Amino acid sequence: MICPFCKQDNDKVVDSRVSGTAIRRRRECLACGRRFTTREYIELQPLTVIKRSGEKQPFQREKLIRGIMNSCKKRPLSTEDIEELATRVENALPVNDNSEVGYDTIGNLVMQELKKLDPVAYVRFASIYREFKEVGEFVDQIKTLDKT
């Protein structure tokens, strides 16, 4: 593994733990002595996302996490909470023969998870995902939270 600090390829694993469907490894660079964390995931058939425009692109976990993090800015959620949410969404994605999934399926799964975890982050994500154009759409979305 290449050290993110000194870019040397000389490290040792000092701790490994199972975290959901991933293995979390704490590593120490033998060149600079700094520690960093890596996560190891099972790689299944590559998943393709069908975007709103109809364009197809490979599923990117980092992009999913980035979108969730944007919704969770200044909210009391840890990076680990967001990583676990992303893992739950990934695990819930339907696996079929052609390994394609629509953006709407991913968005709905994220919204379900955020609704349980943090209502404010849920409304933020929904506003971008559903492309709110008017304030009334925010109000309607918040009213759905009161019903649950």
Which key terms come to mind for this protein?
5 helices, alpha+beta, 3-stranded antiparallel beta sheet, single chain, 148 residues, 3-stranded mixed beta sheet
Describe this structure in words.
- It contains five helices and six strands.
- With 148 residues, it is of the alpha+beta class.
- The chain folds into two domains: 42 residues, no CATH class; 102 residues, no CATH class.
- The strands form two sheets. It has a three-stranded antiparallel beta sheet, with no helix packed on it. Strands 5-4-6 form a three-stranded mixed beta sheet.
- A hairpin with a 5-residue loop joins strand 2 and strand 3.
- It is globular.
Quaternary structure: single chain
What's the SSE pattern? EEEEEHHEHHH
Instruction: Compute the separation of the termini in Å.
Output: 45 Å
Biggest sheet: strand arrangement: 1-2-3
The poorly predicted ranges are none
* Strand-residue proportion: 15-25%
Please report the total strand number as a whole number.
6
Helix share, percent: 40-55%
The mean pLDDT is 87
- Rounded to an integer in angstroms, the radius of gyration calculated over CA atoms is 18 Å
Number of helices: 5
Coarse shape: globular
Major sheet details:
3 strands, antiparallel
Give the domain tally.
2
> Which structural category fits the helices and strands?
alpha+beta
